[in-house]
Specification:
The chain is α+β, with helices and mostly antiparallel strands and 484 residues long. It folds into two domains: 8-75, no CATH class; 124-482, Orthogonal Bundle (Cytochrome p450), CATH 1.10.630.10. The protein has helices at 77-83, 91-95, 98-107, 124-132, 147-151, 174-184, 190-194, 197-211, 219-236, 243-253, 267-286, 295-302, 312-328, 330-343, 345-353, 355-369, 401-404, 439-456, and strands spanning 8-12, 26-27, 39-40, 43-44, 55-61, 64-68, 110-113, 118-121, 137-138, 216-218, 304-305, 308-309, 375-380, 384-386, 389-391, 396-400, 461-467, 476-482. The protein has a five-stranded mixed beta sheet with strand order 7-8-16-13-9, sandwiched between helices. Strands 1-6-5-2 form a four-stranded antiparallel beta sheet, with no helix packed on it. The chain is globular, with a radius of gyration of 24 Å. The structure holds protoporphyrin IX containing FE (HEM). Protoporphyrin IX containing FE (HEM) is lined by residues 143, 169-170, 181, 188, 232, 321-322, 325-326, 329-330, 333, 367, 371, 373, 376, 401, 428-430, 434, 436-438, 441-442.
């Protein structure tokens, strides 16, 4: 019996508990081992079955029984959300967190996850309040974590800052962090970013010149991702020709094992590849071999942090934050945005009627509606009350930004994409201390990509859109489209 048969899933149930006499019979669910399908990695997989709804047994082999799963006997994700506790690393949540967010906002706005010493906040105002109360939180444990990292904690413990080598930007102690952030923003402030517009447009059109004649291409990996990675390569002193390699490394760096929520195989090797690309760029700049002086690297070299100058490796780690943040998020937002425009032809026509003025607000709605990054974490530094709940030192908060962006308390019809929504505010770039340093660049790139793509490709068909399960970056990592 092939385990991967399309409509069969393996349920691992102790053999002796299976009261199945003949293959092919239909039995009430509770006859099969008397319990829901397997808790695996702390979650339910395959999807739990509806109690008492009969299921067809296809075969029994060893410790596995094969069931024919249909819409009638499997729960929907909304039903699962009502019956199970939210866990960002459960397989069902990593597949589609949106029904869970609704459930959390409506019924559990302050949701305890004792297994991680953490509280999840899902309403817009509460997520904003976490970001705005940043003096009460620290990021020594990072602003992101996987299941393994979040499962380790010491109750009541204060921050343990890593200092050597200097970690990724967000993990640094506040004073050091402020200095590093300033240096890293050397070419990310509005004036410097505006000066990049012509170059971004040129690279965008050069790629379209190559892709349009192919009639079918991957909008995330071959188009928007290359434009985005190219911009940050230019800042970090990495040859623009290496944009595809940087993009692949950035995508792998934020990828999670879709079953465990942990690091995928090759994660460490990939991180080292990315760091080596960055170390080479720093060495080239120090040796005066870069195409132009690179303000980000120069400013980081000038700094004295913790009584010492930054090493080549320190600087490489820091600029890798720019390569990561700058390469992998924007293409997913853009690809999802194109999908929404195609689903809503009247909205697409409205945006296209005046691309010069409409691309900007349309991209802003994409930032609200299509953001792949689901949450960021903080650790409590001093007791603070959020949503009426007092948080203690050492507890973690999980700020669910995409839930906040869909909060019906903040937006009318939040689950509807609306290109000209009056978005007075959203959480797409976070807020407060760690507000995205690349927001100006991302907005400029998003606007130009939309303008040039829709101007030259007014009609397209989405052939394949892949959104790999992930607790963190749940976005279209690959989207193929075709043009007539
Ligand atoms: C559409 C594109 C983008 C989105 C949706 C996005 C989103 C975000 C969000 C939500 C945060 C806040 C993290 C937190 O609160 O812990 C963040 C931080 C960050 N972003 Fe972006 N980002 C985008 C583009 C970029 C670009 C283009 C760059 C680099 C040029 C970048 C670099 C960073 C860095 C380095 C941080 C960490 C900042 C810190 O911890 O202080 N991002 N981003």
């Amino acid at each position: 019996m092939p385990a991967a048969h399309c409509c069969c899933l393996t349920a691992i149930v102790p053999r002796q508990a299976v009261r199945v006499k003949r293959m092919g019979q239909t039995v009430p669910y509770f006859d099969i081992g008397g319990r829901p399908a397997i808790p695996m990695y702390g979650t339910l997989y395959p999807p739990p079955l509806r109690p008492q709804v009969p299921v067809s047994v296809i075969a029994v082999t060893g410790f596995s029984i094969y069931l024919r799963l249909t819409a009638q006997n499997t729960m929907t994700t909304a039903e699962i959300a009502r019956t199970s506790k939210y866990d960002p690393f459960s397989i069902a949540v990593m597949r589609d967190p949106l029904p869970y967010y609704k459930e959390l906002r409506d019924h559990f706005p302050v949701h305890h996850m004792p297994q991680y010493n953490a509280w999840a906040f899902s309403r817009f105002e509460d997520v904003l309040s976490i970001f705005e109360n940043d003096a009460h939180f620290h990021s020594a444990e990072g602003t992101l974590s996987n299941k393994e990292g979040l499962s380790k904690f010491e109750k009541g413990a204060g921050p343990k800052w890593q200092k050597d080598p200097t970690p990724l930007l967000g993990f640094n102690e506040t004073e050091t962090y402020g200095k590093l952030r300033q240096a890293m923003m050397a070419e990310l402030k509005p004036k410097s970013v505006t000066a990049l517009a012509d170059d971004i447009r040129k690279r965008t059109n050069a790629l379209l010149d190559k892709l349009i004649p192919q009639k079918r291409f991957n909008v995330t990996l071959d188009f928007a991702g290359i434009v985005a990675a190219g911009s940050v390569c230019g800042m970090a002193g990495v040859p623009v020709e290496d944009a595809a390699e940087v993009l692949a490394a950035a995508n792998l760096a934020t990828k999670q094992d879709p079953v465990t929520g942990g690091f995928p195989p090759d994660w460490i090797k990939n991180r080292d590849t990315l760091l080596e690309i960055c170390r080479k760029a720093v060495r080239r700049q120090i040796a005066g071999q870069s195409d132009r002086p690179l303000p980000v690297i120069e400013k980081l070299r000038e700094l004295e942090v913790e009584g010492r100058k930054l090493t080549v490796n320190d600087i490489a780690i820091l600029i890798s934050s720019i390569l990561l943040g700058g390469s992998e998020t924007l293409p997913k937002v853009f690809a999802h945005g194109l999908l929404e425009l195609n689903r809503n032809p009247s909205q697409k026509a409205e945006v296209m009627s005046d691309l010069e003025n409409n691309a900007r607000p349309a991209f802003e709605e994409m930032l609200r509606y299509c953001g792949p990054a689901q949450w960021f974490m903080r650790t409590v530094l001093t007791p603070v009350t959020i949503a009426g709940h007092k948080l203690e030192v050492g507890e973690r908060v999980v700020a669910l930004i995409q839930s906040g962006n869909r909060d019906e308390r903040e937006y009318p019809n939040p689950d509807q994409f609306q290109w000209n929504r009056p978005n007075t505010r959203h959480l797409g770039f976070g807020n407060g201390l760690h507000f995205c340093i690349g927001s100006h660049l991302a907005r400029l790139e998003g606007k130009i990509l939309l303008q040039e793509f829709l101007r030259r490709v007014p009609e397209y068909t989405i052939e394949e859109a892949v959104r790999t399960p992930s607790s963190f970056q749940w976005g279209y990592s690959s989207m193929a489209l075709s043009i007539a």
